[in-house]
Amino acid sequence: MNPLAQQDPAIWDAIEAEGRRQQEGLEMIASENYTSLPIMQAAGSVLTNKYAEGYPGKRYYGGCEHVDVVETIAIDRAKKLFGAEAANVQPHAGSQANTAVYLSCLEVGDTVLGLDLAQGGHLTHGMKLNISGRLYNFISYGVDKENHRLDFDQIAKLAREHKPKLIVAGASAYPREIPHDRFAEIANEVGAKLMVDMAHYAGLVAAGVHNSPIPFADYVTTTTHKTLRGPRSGLIMCKEEHLKLVNRNVFPGTQGGPLMHMVAAKAICFDEAMQPEYKMYGQAVVDNAKTLAETLLSAGLRLVSGGTDNHLMLVDVTAVDLGGKKAEEALDRCGITVNMNMIPFDQRRPADPSGIRIGTPALTTRGMGIEEMKRVGGWIASALRSPDDAAMLEGIRGEIKDMCEQFPVPAGRNSALMPAN
Ligand code: PLP
């Protein structure tokens, strides 16, 4: 008996099919992962029924005594996990977290430095159509043309010239460790506040395999669903002195009632990230990325910055006479999901850029390791070299399906959706 399948077969069938896709293919989008079953249970729980505008102990709705417990636990765990002075666990997503921080420390028209979207930044770091680019005067910094590393000479020069009120560090497509201390030095010199958006590598910070921004930044924002491996949501951490304004700018500044089922799911994610085995997961994500990068390089592919220190790599597919769109499609036909991506100083358009972005978090969560990465690297290289060879792509798809059977997704295909009794 499955109430969802009975009531709404169209939606159930699509969920079923997505569960099958997640099990049978290789999920290599750098920002995706698989949550645990307890996280899915919380995300699908009765807490979705509850309104709780306000904060624990100060709500605008009755009946909040139980959700107050949940949110207090989530705040305490976020602070403990990352060593932060204060936390707000209500942002619905990473974009909302960033917007609330901007409202907390900027006036409309203020100047901010952020990483160029075309060089690895995020939409919320000043893209013209995003609220960040519409409300504030974002000046973009970038990476060095030769080595593709963050260009700190340029960042310091821009900071001295434009005197920003805020510097935003963090990226969506940067394959190297981000030195937060260098951003802090520049921010201190010009009297700017520092916000680090660690959405992509928060799980690596939690596992101790990437340096933490907490000692250096006034504000740290993150999503909770990427390397961190929690539910699809957001989080802000800050110095205690900034909390009052941050809280006010999450609610009522940018959001109404918090999604308490997601707050509960975040609390579980933070607890999971404090377990000893999480360190092994974080290390394995990085080790797997290194092996995959080496395999691709030795197959003759070109990587932005020549490799990776973290969970992702950017492959310049123009080296094999491809565009990003066709590369993404060829891999998709094999059952390997990646996304096309601009690379630094790209000469092509965003709709068909020069690169693809590949990440290892989701495969690592399934338990895949060094041997599997070598196989995956071989498949990727073959597919990119012969993207029109339908029979070969089909063959790879079959091999991938077989390998995936040995690495079931952690929560099972649809288990959280099945009734408990
Ligand atoms: N910040 C960074 C660096 C990201 O990569 C992303 C998502 O890709 C976000 C923020 C936004 O997160 P969300 O999609 O949850 O709004």
UniProtKB/TrEMBL annotation:
Its EC number is 2.1.2.1. Gene3D superfamilies: Aspartate Aminotransferase, domain 1, Type I PLP-dependent aspartate aminotransferase-like (Major domain). Pathway: Amino-acid biosynthesis; glycine biosynthesis; glycine from L-serine: step 1/1; One-carbon metabolism; tetrahydrofolate interconversion. CDD domains: SHMT. The record marks H225 as: Plays an important role in substrate specificity. Its main location: cytoplasm. It catalyses: (6R)-5,10-methylene-5,6,7,8-tetrahydrofolate + glycine + H2O = (6S)-5,6,7,8-tetrahydrofolate + L-serine. The keyword Methyltransferase applies. The modification N6-(pyridoxal phosphate)lysine is found at K226. (6S)-5,6,7,8-tetrahydrofolate binds at L117, G121, H122, L123, E240. Residues 4-380 form the Serine hydroxymethyltransferase-like domain. This is Serine hydroxymethyltransferase. It comes from Rubripirellula reticaptiva.
